TrEMBL record:
Residues 72-147 form the ACT domain. Belongs to the UPF0735 family. Coiled coil: none annotated. It comes from the Bacteria. This is UPF0735 ACT domain-containing protein DEACI_2608. CDD domains: ACT_PheB-BS (cd04888). InterPro entries: ACT-like_dom_sf, ACT_dom, UPF0735_ACT_dom-cont.
Length: 148
């Protein structure tokens, strides 16, 4: 038996063709139970069945790719007391399991931090983790730098 390896990219949806975006929307409708059949899903998002079948095996949301995996985030934080603690508390509040933390020496009021998080036990999807972290006071930038 030969197991084929698949390569993945994280791509901003702003640059994707409409058919790929609509395929993702149709799959989400099916997954949530908002529709019962593929026909209903493709009709609702105005996509042809052939386009859906062409892309359905290669399109899935970020959270689906990240569930029960490890994601590594790069954060730029203001160098103020308690900000890293808030970040770690937020990760814990959504049941992300922090595996490693690396912080460079803060320079010019900015601290670069990388955090590896296991997502298996998370209450919500990793996209919500990123949104929540981004809303914390003192968090200037977040990037997903790895996922396995």
């Amino acid at each position: 038996m030969v197991i084929k390896s698949r390569d993945f990219l994280i791509v901003s949806k702003e640059i994707l063709p409409e058919a790929i975006l609509k395929t993702a929307q149709a799959k989400e409708l099916l997954a949530k139970g908002d529709v019962d059949t593929i026909n209903e899903a493709v009709e609702r998002v105005a996509l042809s069945r052939s386009a859906f079948y062409k892309y359905k095996e290669g399109v899935f949301p970020f959270y689906e790719a990240s569930r029960e995996k490890i994601i590594t985030l790069s954060l730029i934080l203001e160098n103020k007391s308690g900000i890293l603690s808030q970040v770690l508390n937020f990760i814990a509040s959504v049941r992300g399991n922090v595996l490693t933390i690396n912080q460079d020496i803060p320079l010019q009021g900015i601290a670069h931090v990388s955090v590896a998080i296991e997502t298996a036990g998370m209450l919500d999807i990793p996209e919500k983790l990123l949104e929540g972290l981004g809303s914390l006071d003192g968090v200037r930038k977040i990037e997903v730098i790895a996922q396995s």
